[in-house]
Design goal:
single chain; 282 residues; alpha/beta; Rossmann fold; binds adenosine-5'-triphosphate; transport; ATP hydrolysis activity; transmembrane transporter activity
Length: 282
Amino acid sequence: MGRHSAAASANNQSTKIRKTTVSNISGGSNDSEIVAQAIDLTKTYGDKDAQVVALDHVDVSFIRGQMTAIMGPSGSGKSTLMHCMAGLDQPTSGKVIVEGLEVSSMNQRQLTKLRREQIGFIFQSFNLVPTLTAEENILLPLQIAKRPIDRAWFNKVVDVVGLRSRLTHRPSQLSGGQQQRVACARAIMARPSVIFADEPTGNLDSHSSREVLGFLKNSVREYGQTIVMVTHDPRAASYADRVLVLADGRITQDLQHPTYEEILEVFAGEGDEVADQQEVAQ
Ligand SMILES: Nc1ncnc2c1ncn2[C@@H]1O[C@H](COP(=O)(O)OP(=O)(O)OP(=O)(O)O)[C@@H](O)[C@H]1O
Protein backbone atom coordinates (compact mmCIF):
# COMPACT_ATOMS: atom_id res chain seq x y z
CA MET A 1 0.00 0.00 0.00
CA GLY A 2 1.27 3.49 -0.88
CA ARG A 3 2.16 5.93 1.84
CA HIS A 4 -0.72 8.31 1.10
CA SER A 5 -3.32 5.57 1.17
CA ALA A 6 -1.79 4.28 4.41
CA ALA A 7 -2.30 7.69 6.01
CA ALA A 8 -5.85 7.89 4.69
CA SER A 9 -6.59 4.42 6.02
CA ALA A 10 -5.27 5.37 9.45
CA ASN A 11 -7.38 8.52 9.45
CA ASN A 12 -10.49 6.63 8.41
CA GLN A 13 -10.08 4.34 11.38
CA SER A 14 -9.56 7.14 13.85
CA THR A 15 -13.24 7.69 14.57
CA LYS A 16 -13.61 4.10 15.77
CA ILE A 17 -10.75 4.18 18.23
CA ARG A 18 -10.35 6.00 21.50
CA LYS A 19 -8.13 8.86 20.52
CA THR A 20 -6.21 11.40 22.53
CA THR A 21 -4.78 14.42 20.83
CA VAL A 22 -1.17 15.32 21.29
CA SER A 23 -2.09 18.68 22.82
CA ASN A 24 -4.15 16.91 25.49
CA ILE A 25 -1.22 14.70 26.37
CA SER A 26 1.41 17.40 26.49
CA GLY A 27 -0.62 20.10 28.19
CA GLY A 28 -2.19 20.72 31.57
CA SER A 29 -1.33 19.04 34.82
CA ASN A 30 0.80 16.34 33.22
CA ASP A 31 3.52 18.83 32.32
CA SER A 32 5.76 17.95 35.27
CA GLU A 33 5.70 14.31 34.23
CA ILE A 34 6.98 14.84 30.72
CA VAL A 35 10.31 13.06 30.26
CA ALA A 36 10.91 13.67 26.58
CA GLN A 37 9.28 15.99 24.11
CA ALA A 38 9.41 16.80 20.41
CA ILE A 39 8.26 20.30 19.46
CA ASP A 40 7.47 21.06 15.82
CA LEU A 41 10.09 18.51 14.82
CA THR A 42 10.97 18.28 11.15
CA LYS A 43 13.64 16.17 9.50
CA THR A 44 14.29 16.27 5.79
CA TYR A 45 16.87 14.34 3.80
CA GLY A 46 18.35 15.25 0.44
CA ASP A 47 18.22 18.52 -1.49
CA LYS A 48 15.30 20.32 -3.14
CA ASP A 49 14.97 18.05 -6.17
CA ALA A 50 15.03 14.79 -4.26
CA GLN A 51 13.87 15.86 -0.82
CA VAL A 52 12.40 13.31 1.59
CA VAL A 53 10.39 14.65 4.52
CA ALA A 54 10.98 11.98 7.16
CA LEU A 55 9.34 13.98 9.98
CA ASP A 56 6.79 16.67 9.24
CA HIS A 57 6.23 19.10 12.14
CA VAL A 58 5.79 16.44 14.83
CA ASP A 59 4.66 17.45 18.34
CA VAL A 60 4.67 14.74 20.97
CA SER A 61 5.39 14.27 24.66
CA PHE A 62 6.39 11.08 26.44
CA ILE A 63 5.12 10.75 30.00
CA ARG A 64 7.20 9.31 32.85
CA GLY A 65 6.44 5.70 33.73
CA GLN A 66 4.69 4.90 30.46
CA MET A 67 5.50 2.43 27.71
CA THR A 68 4.78 3.90 24.28
CA ALA A 69 4.84 1.91 21.05
CA ILE A 70 5.51 3.70 17.77
CA MET A 71 3.98 1.97 14.77
CA GLY A 72 3.47 2.81 11.12
CA PRO A 73 4.31 1.63 7.62
CA SER A 74 7.89 1.25 6.44
CA GLY A 75 9.37 4.68 5.71
CA SER A 76 6.83 6.54 7.87
CA GLY A 77 9.54 8.07 10.07
CA LYS A 78 9.55 5.83 13.18
CA SER A 79 13.31 5.35 13.38
CA THR A 80 13.97 8.97 12.48
CA LEU A 81 11.72 10.14 15.32
CA MET A 82 13.42 7.83 17.79
CA HIS A 83 16.92 8.74 16.62
CA CYS A 84 16.16 12.47 16.90
CA MET A 85 14.64 11.97 20.37
CA ALA A 86 17.73 10.03 21.50
CA GLY A 87 20.20 12.58 20.16
CA LEU A 88 21.51 10.11 17.56
CA ASP A 89 20.30 12.27 14.68
CA GLN A 90 20.01 16.04 14.27
CA PRO A 91 16.58 17.46 13.33
CA THR A 92 16.30 19.92 10.43
CA SER A 93 14.09 22.20 12.55
CA GLY A 94 12.15 22.07 15.80
CA LYS A 95 13.26 21.01 19.25
CA VAL A 96 13.87 17.83 21.23
CA ILE A 97 13.79 18.14 25.00
CA VAL A 98 14.78 15.35 27.42
CA GLU A 99 14.47 15.97 31.17
CA GLY A 100 14.21 19.69 30.48
CA LEU A 101 17.44 19.75 28.42
CA GLU A 102 17.36 20.82 24.81
CA VAL A 103 18.96 17.88 23.00
CA SER A 104 18.65 19.44 19.56
CA SER A 105 21.12 22.21 20.41
CA MET A 106 23.71 20.10 22.24
CA ASN A 107 27.29 19.67 21.07
CA GLN A 108 28.87 16.20 20.76
CA ARG A 109 30.29 16.19 24.27
CA GLN A 110 26.91 17.09 25.79
CA LEU A 111 25.18 14.47 23.61
CA THR A 112 27.57 11.76 24.78
CA LYS A 113 26.89 12.70 28.40
CA LEU A 114 23.13 12.70 27.77
CA ARG A 115 23.22 9.26 26.13
CA ARG A 116 25.32 7.85 28.95
CA GLU A 117 23.29 9.27 31.80
CA GLN A 118 19.70 9.72 30.67
CA ILE A 119 19.05 7.34 27.81
CA GLY A 120 19.06 3.56 27.45
CA PHE A 121 19.00 1.72 24.13
CA ILE A 122 17.75 -1.70 23.10
CA PHE A 123 18.32 -2.72 19.48
CA GLN A 124 16.83 -5.46 17.32
CA SER A 125 20.31 -6.97 16.87
CA PHE A 126 21.03 -6.94 20.66
CA ASN A 127 24.37 -5.07 20.19
CA LEU A 128 26.25 -6.97 22.87
CA VAL A 129 30.06 -7.11 23.01
CA PRO A 130 30.88 -10.68 21.89
CA THR A 131 34.05 -11.05 23.97
CA LEU A 132 32.39 -10.02 27.25
CA THR A 133 30.25 -12.18 29.55
CA ALA A 134 26.60 -11.39 30.22
CA GLU A 135 27.53 -9.72 33.50
CA GLU A 136 30.28 -7.65 31.90
CA ASN A 137 27.90 -6.58 29.13
CA ILE A 138 25.25 -5.52 31.65
CA LEU A 139 27.75 -3.44 33.63
CA LEU A 140 29.68 -2.01 30.68
CA PRO A 141 27.79 1.30 30.27
CA LEU A 142 28.21 2.11 33.97
CA GLN A 143 31.91 1.30 33.79
CA ILE A 144 32.40 3.46 30.70
CA ALA A 145 30.60 6.30 32.47
CA LYS A 146 32.72 5.64 35.59
CA ARG A 147 29.56 5.38 37.65
CA PRO A 148 29.35 3.28 40.82
CA ILE A 149 27.68 -0.12 40.54
CA ASP A 150 24.69 -0.66 42.80
CA ARG A 151 25.04 -4.41 43.51
CA ALA A 152 21.60 -4.71 45.10
CA TRP A 153 20.01 -3.20 41.99
CA PHE A 154 22.17 -5.43 39.75
CA ASN A 155 20.98 -8.54 41.64
CA LYS A 156 17.36 -7.45 41.37
CA VAL A 157 17.62 -6.77 37.63
CA VAL A 158 19.42 -10.08 37.00
CA ASP A 159 16.73 -12.01 38.88
CA VAL A 160 13.89 -10.23 37.14
CA VAL A 161 15.28 -11.04 33.69
CA GLY A 162 16.12 -14.60 34.83
CA LEU A 163 19.82 -14.51 33.96
CA ARG A 164 21.29 -15.63 37.28
CA SER A 165 22.67 -18.90 35.87
CA ARG A 166 23.94 -17.30 32.66
CA LEU A 167 26.06 -14.42 33.98
CA THR A 168 29.40 -15.97 32.98
CA HIS A 169 28.23 -16.90 29.46
CA ARG A 170 29.29 -14.95 26.37
CA PRO A 171 26.61 -13.82 23.90
CA SER A 172 27.42 -16.70 21.50
CA GLN A 173 26.58 -19.13 24.31
CA LEU A 174 23.14 -17.58 24.84
CA SER A 175 19.87 -17.90 22.92
CA GLY A 176 18.47 -14.86 21.11
CA GLY A 177 15.92 -14.32 23.86
CA GLN A 178 18.61 -14.53 26.55
CA GLN A 179 20.83 -12.10 24.62
CA GLN A 180 17.97 -9.61 24.39
CA ARG A 181 17.30 -10.02 28.11
CA VAL A 182 20.98 -9.12 28.69
CA ALA A 183 20.43 -6.02 26.53
CA CYS A 184 17.31 -5.13 28.54
CA ALA A 185 19.19 -5.58 31.82
CA ARG A 186 22.04 -3.43 30.46
CA ALA A 187 19.58 -0.68 29.50
CA ILE A 188 17.73 -0.64 32.83
CA MET A 189 20.85 -1.07 35.00
CA ALA A 190 21.76 2.61 34.59
CA ARG A 191 18.20 3.67 35.52
CA PRO A 192 17.92 5.98 32.50
CA SER A 193 15.19 8.59 32.19
CA VAL A 194 13.97 6.87 29.05
CA ILE A 195 14.75 3.66 27.19
CA PHE A 196 14.44 3.75 23.39
CA ALA A 197 13.89 0.28 21.96
CA ASP A 198 14.12 -0.28 18.19
CA GLU A 199 12.20 -3.44 17.24
CA PRO A 200 13.37 -5.17 20.44
CA THR A 201 11.53 -8.39 19.55
CA GLY A 202 12.23 -8.24 15.82
CA ASN A 203 14.71 -11.13 15.94
CA LEU A 204 12.93 -13.23 18.55
CA ASP A 205 10.47 -16.12 18.39
CA SER A 206 7.08 -15.55 19.97
CA HIS A 207 8.01 -17.20 23.29
CA SER A 208 11.15 -15.07 23.73
CA SER A 209 9.24 -11.98 22.56
CA ARG A 210 6.68 -12.48 25.31
CA GLU A 211 9.46 -12.84 27.90
CA VAL A 212 11.23 -9.67 26.80
CA LEU A 213 8.02 -7.65 26.53
CA GLY A 214 6.89 -8.95 29.91
CA PHE A 215 10.15 -7.79 31.43
CA LEU A 216 9.93 -4.36 29.79
CA LYS A 217 6.35 -3.92 30.94
CA ASN A 218 7.30 -5.02 34.43
CA SER A 219 10.06 -2.42 34.58
CA VAL A 220 7.45 0.23 33.72
CA ARG A 221 4.98 -1.01 36.36
CA GLU A 222 7.42 -1.70 39.19
CA TYR A 223 10.17 0.87 38.72
CA GLY A 224 8.38 3.62 36.78
CA GLN A 225 10.69 3.15 33.80
CA THR A 226 9.78 5.15 30.68
CA ILE A 227 10.03 3.18 27.43
CA VAL A 228 9.56 4.23 23.82
CA MET A 229 9.54 1.23 21.48
CA VAL A 230 9.37 1.10 17.69
CA THR A 231 7.62 -2.03 16.52
CA HIS A 232 5.84 -3.48 13.49
CA ASP A 233 4.25 -6.17 15.63
CA PRO A 234 0.70 -5.40 16.86
CA ARG A 235 1.11 -8.05 19.57
CA ALA A 236 4.21 -6.28 20.92
CA ALA A 237 2.44 -2.91 20.70
CA SER A 238 -0.47 -4.24 22.76
CA TYR A 239 1.90 -4.40 25.78
CA ALA A 240 2.23 -0.60 25.63
CA ASP A 241 0.21 1.97 27.56
CA ARG A 242 0.01 4.08 24.45
CA VAL A 243 0.40 3.49 20.73
CA LEU A 244 1.41 6.25 18.32
CA VAL A 245 0.88 5.64 14.63
CA LEU A 246 3.03 7.48 12.10
CA ALA A 247 2.31 7.93 8.41
CA ASP A 248 4.32 10.11 6.06
CA GLY A 249 6.25 11.67 8.93
CA ARG A 250 3.15 12.69 10.91
CA ILE A 251 1.37 11.25 13.92
CA THR A 252 -2.01 10.10 12.66
CA GLN A 253 -3.19 8.19 15.74
CA ASP A 254 -2.50 8.47 19.45
CA LEU A 255 -4.18 5.58 21.26
CA GLN A 256 -4.39 5.10 25.03
CA HIS A 257 -4.30 1.48 26.23
CA PRO A 258 -5.50 -0.02 22.96
CA THR A 259 -6.25 -3.73 22.88
CA TYR A 260 -4.57 -6.03 20.35
CA GLU A 261 -7.82 -6.05 18.36
CA GLU A 262 -7.98 -2.24 18.30
CA ILE A 263 -4.41 -2.06 17.03
CA LEU A 264 -5.19 -4.61 14.33
CA GLU A 265 -8.21 -2.53 13.34
CA VAL A 266 -6.01 0.54 12.76
CA PHE A 267 -3.97 -1.42 10.27
CA ALA A 268 -6.87 -3.34 8.76
CA GLY A 269 -6.40 -1.60 5.39
CA GLU A 270 -2.73 -2.49 5.30
CA GLY A 271 -2.92 -5.81 7.11
CA ASP A 272 -0.90 -7.62 4.49
CA GLU A 273 2.10 -5.37 5.06
CA VAL A 274 1.93 -5.70 8.86
CA ALA A 275 1.40 -9.47 8.63
CA ASP A 276 4.34 -9.79 6.23
CA GLN A 277 6.62 -7.81 8.51
CA GLN A 278 5.46 -9.84 11.50
CA GLU A 279 6.21 -13.07 9.67
CA VAL A 280 9.69 -11.90 8.71
CA ALA A 281 10.30 -10.91 12.34
CA GLN A 282 9.41 -14.35 13.68
N1 LIG B 1 20.03 8.83 5.77
C1 LIG B 1 18.95 8.99 5.00
N2 LIG B 1 19.07 9.59 3.78
C2 LIG B 1 17.99 9.78 3.01
N3 LIG B 1 16.73 9.40 3.33
C3 LIG B 1 16.57 8.79 4.52
C4 LIG B 1 17.66 8.55 5.41
N4 LIG B 1 17.17 7.93 6.53
C5 LIG B 1 15.85 7.79 6.34
N5 LIG B 1 15.48 8.30 5.14
C6 LIG B 1 14.13 8.35 4.60
O1 LIG B 1 13.29 8.95 5.57
C7 LIG B 1 12.01 8.30 5.60
C8 LIG B 1 11.73 7.79 7.01
O2 LIG B 1 12.68 6.77 7.29
P1 LIG B 1 12.64 5.95 8.67
O3 LIG B 1 13.82 5.03 8.65
O4 LIG B 1 12.52 6.88 9.81
O5 LIG B 1 11.28 5.13 8.52
P2 LIG B 1 10.73 3.92 9.41
O6 LIG B 1 9.30 4.19 9.65
O7 LIG B 1 11.60 3.71 10.59
O8 LIG B 1 10.89 2.71 8.39
P3 LIG B 1 11.12 1.13 8.65
O9 LIG B 1 9.88 0.63 9.32
O10 LIG B 1 11.26 0.58 7.26
O11 LIG B 1 12.36 0.98 9.48
C9 LIG B 1 12.07 7.21 4.54
O12 LIG B 1 11.48 7.68 3.36
C10 LIG B 1 13.55 6.98 4.36
O13 LIG B 1 13.83 6.51 3.06
